[in-house]
Here is the input.
Amino acid sequence: MTTTADLRAVVETYWSAADARDWDAFAATLADEVLYDLPQTRERIRGKERYLRFNREYPGEWRVRVERVVADGEGQQAAVRTRFTVGAEELPAVHFFVFDATGRISEITDFWPEPYEPPAGREHLAERY
Here is the structure.
């Protein structure tokens, strides 16, 4: 059984690996059929390889700091509040994670402060809705 502490550890590894651009450690947190949903840009990415590529190719320099992780007591979901730094700008975000039976991330939904058009060049990875 996956505990709340296990979920917190997976989420913390996910974000620290993303911040360090350690894509192997990042990939280890993900289920093969992970589903990433980004409502503000109306994008959806299916599968680990596409999601990894999306993150590897994301433009610009950014840093992320986890402010809070809340995981449910049944080991299935977590909510995370982060703060991203892009240049001089700081952006708050909220992320919802769902985990599979092995404790890997199977679904991610990111919420940013405002809707925006996605940067060009990732159409090959994302479905628009």
